[in-house]
Each structure stands twice: as C-alpha cells, then as structure tokens.
Amino acid sequence: MSNRENLRQLLLQLDDRGYKAYRDIKGSYQFTDFTLIIDRVQGDPFATPSQIRVIAPQSVAGFPTQLYQTPAREIALRDYLTRKFDSVVKNFSSHRGTGNSGLIAITYVGQSVLERTCVFVTDKSVEVRFIVGLPGRGRSISGRQAGEMLCEDIPLIVNQALKYSSLNAKAIQDHVETVEDAEWLRQELPKRGLVAFIPDGAILPRTSGVDDRPLSDEAVPFQSPPSLRVKFTCPNRGLVTGMGIAKGVTLIVGGGYHGKSTLLRSIELGVYNHIPNDGRELVVTNPAAVKIRAEDGRSIASVDISPFINQLPQNRSTRQFSTTNASGSTSQAANIIEALEAGTELLLVDEDTAATNFMIRDRRMQQLVAKDKEPITPFIDKVRQLYTDCGVSTILVMGGSGDYFDVADIAIAMDNFQPQDVTKEAKEIALKYRTERLKEGGDKFGSINPRILLPESIDPSRGNREVKLKVRDVDEVVFGTEEIDLASVEQIAERGQLRAIAEAIVYAKRQYINGESALPEILDGVMGDIESKGLDILSNLPEGDFVKFRRFELAAALNRLRSLKVK
Ligand code: ADP
Ligand code: MG
Prior knowledge:
- The chain is α+β, with helices and mostly antiparallel strands.
- The protein has three domains: 2-167, no CATH class; 188-449, Rossmann fold (3-Layer(aba) Sandwich); 455-559, no CATH class.
- The protein is built from 14 helices and 28 strands.
- The longest helix is centred in the N-terminal third of the chain and has 20 residues, at 169-188.
- The structure holds adenosine-5'-diphosphate and magnesium ion.
- Residues 204-205, 215, 218-220, 254, 256-262, 414, 417 line the site of adenosine-5'-diphosphate.
C-alpha cells in the first residue's frame, strides 16, 4: 500500500495539470495512525465533492467496549462521533480555490440520534466517511493545497475527533446513556399499555419554525397532570415521571396557541431518539406511529378508501381508488389506509393539517345533506372501530369540535402550555349536551387489502441512461424522470433518510417487487435486509450519507410515485 509521502508526492506531480487527472489518487494510503481511502474523485471543482474514508484501528482510537456493546449504545456513540467530527472539520474547511475547493464535510445531522453510514465503530476500528472538495484553480489542480488538506489537515482532524483520549468522556457517556434510556422507555411502553410518554420537565417548543433546537428562555417545562402520571426506573437516569398516553383514543383540546400542536409534534418525533439537552430526549412514542394529514394534490394508486369514502360522483370506485390529484379528504383517507397497510399502530392527527369535512359532519349538516349525497364517512365514526377492529390507537388534536368527546377515552386540555386531564368534564358535557349525530359508516371499520406492486411501473432510469436518483432538498426525491414530493411526510427527520429511501426503492425493485408480492412483504424484505446487513446494502460504493428510515416512510415514497401501478 502507498503511504502518506507517496500521496503527497503524487499530488505535487499533479499540480497545475487538468482537474480530471485527480482520478489518479483513487486508492488506499497508510498513514501513521490510520488508513486513508479515496473512494470517489469528483470530475471538476463544482461537482459533488470527492468521497473519502478514514479507518483508525481501536489501538489508536481507543474506545472502551461499554460505549458500543449494545445496539442502542453503538448508534449513540456513532452519532456522537459524527457531531464531533462535524464540529472539528468546520475549523479546517475553507475556500481554497474554485467551487467546492477546500470543503471538508460530513453528512448533515439534526436533533435526532439515528443510525447513519458516516461513522462505524467496531472492536477493530473506527471508520468515518466524509467529503472533500479537492482544490483547483479553474480547471487545473492545486496539488500543493490538496497535499495540505489530505496529508496535514486530516491527521489533525483524526487526532481531535476520533481519539477517545482527546474527547470529553463524560459527554460521550451521557450521550450513550441518554439514548439507552430512551430506547428502554420506548420498549417499556407496550408493557404498560401506553403508546406515548412525555416526561416531566421536558422542553417541547422549538426555537423557531426553521430551527429545531429547543426554545431557551420562555419555554414552560412539561408537567403531567397527576391522574395521568406514570413512573419508570430507567437503567441510567433512574426514576423518571411523566405523562403516559394509553392505547385507545386520546383527544388533545384547548384554546388556540396553548401548545397542542407542539405536544403532538414531539409525539410524532418520539419515534426517534434525541440528543441530550434537546428537551425531548426522553419523549418516546410507539415506533409504529404515523402522522396523518390532508395532502391535496398527491397521487393515489388503487387504494381501497371505501371505509371512509363511497359513492363518488360519476360512480368512481373507491375500492381501488386512483387519482393524480387527490382532494383534501380523499388524500387523508388514503394516508390512513396506506399507513394501516404498512402496519401502523398509532395514528397522529392535528386539526391544523386535517380536512374538516373528513374529520366531522355534525347533526345539522347530516340533516341538510343526506347520507346518499355525501361520499365521506367522517373520521369521528371510524376512530373507535380503528381501535376495536384493528387495534390501532389515535391521538388527535381537536380544539374545534366537542363531538369527539363521545368517542375519546381520554381528553387532555392544554392550558398555558400545561396539560390537564379533562376526561371527566368532557364525559359529563357529552351527556348533558347530546350531539344527536347519526352514526355513519356501519359497524365495522372495513377490510385492508394489501396491494401487489407492478415492477414495470417503478423505473428509476431516465430514458436509457443508468439509474438516476437525486435528492434535492429535505422534501423531495428525484427518481428517474419523476419527482416524488415528500413535503407532507412529516416524520422524515434528515436529508440522508431521503437519500437512503431513494436507493431502497431501487433495491426493493431489484429484490422484492416481482408482480406477486404485496407491499407489506416488500417492506418486510427491504427493512429485514437493512436490519441484518446494514444500510450499505443499498449501494455498491461505501456511501457516507445514508440515514436509517422507517418502513412507513419507504411506503410513503412508493405510494407517492406518480407512475405506480398495482395488480
Ligand atoms: P396550538 O396548536 O395550541 O395553537 P402551538 O403548539 O402551535 O399551539 O403553540 C403556539 C406557540 O407557543 C408556538 O410558537 C410554540 O412554539 C409555543 N409553545 C408551545 N409550547 C410551549 C411551551 N411549553 N413553552 C413556551 N412556548 C410554547
Ligand atoms: Mg395547532
């Protein structure tokens, strides 16, 4: 294997030559403390930067086994090192010429602790994958500066970011223990008959709509109402108390601007773990929770929305309902049925993003518009059946309609950002002021029929060119000639999840979408392979920006593919 001096010499020889000559540096180099591997070399200074790996043996990195011996701890340590690497490289990354010249960066991370392909820790080594903008002036190579970056800066970065002895041991311990406690709490939920837990003292509001860090000064810490308070003894933190939300139907009510949506949002993201001091680090939710909202304009491919919608104008079938442009109510119905098809156990609905005519139809409207003129059976008539027939719970923010008192097990009122248990009052009011609604939609929820996807309808190639997958921003995946809009899929936490989902669709098509398998089996296959063999199965090259996603978000991407056809 070549060594650091060989690489430096090579880069000096390349100085001033055409940028494309950089491809000669692809390969592995033995440095004193680690191996540097150049996996992919960019074609010009403006292209996606080059991809580099560093592998440092544990004899150098020196991480104690206890920090990565369980899956939860391992993911937490990898997450910690990603953040550390990110903060260290920021001091080295600088403009050194045209375009991306001089950039050093690791994948973007937010407030969640997720499994990612940018850092791996094993008994043998620590591996980090990142990108480097190889420096150039216009179209010519700046070889001396490339030598500084690769041969001088990277060893310093490794020293500062990847050696246990130079890191804050206490902060790392806190990181892994916090994640371990959250993971433990989430696993305890079903044993207590709960679908979500929000600890006392949690800080739920965020800095702003575009900044996901905790609101600092004015935040009111969460306090459970005494009647809903549960206790846990976590493995590390010990006694933790807070509000448990039981299985069934839970209604969150309260005046406008009193913190209802903020509470629901933290429950949505409680399917993921969070970093210490996020404020939501011990907020945990059933991992099969899916946020449901209206999403007019989306496409729908042969979904049986008949539990909610029947007798559309022009006699359109709702047993296999397809459209290229769904309405608010049909999109919300499809979102629910698709979540059930993928195996959800908890639906999360916020009135702010729901279609009113899908949520409620009151006595007066029932009187004015007869049932045979109204295709929609509102959610209020189905929410209990969802629980009794399908075992699926719902947490619903609904400040605008007391009709829901009749169907809720628990009612929580947000009052000045504090929850109150108002179940008893709500039940009394429901008895005193009857809604006189007529029950709609029959006694049963209706059946869920998993769809069989047709492989020829999923084509990630543009014309005859090879597979083209691009991630534009946090909300959109470019897939072949199509754009999949995921802006309304609210439980996607990081851009890297989109990168991985895009590749997972290609993988699913290659391995499991055969014209015979139903969607749930396809999801089982892909998620099972990722579970057992890791995210690297999604690509030939060792990619550094894949982030673990859930089956529900993969299903959501497939379901929003406009070309999708089913048998
Ligand atoms: P609602 O859904 O009841 O109308 P929101 O959840 O949208 O209310 O919250 C309204 C505002 O209050 C938001 O700006 C939010 O960040 C802020 N907020 C929510 N919870 C808290 C809290 N615990 N402490 C301080 N501010 C909060
Ligand atoms: Mg709201």
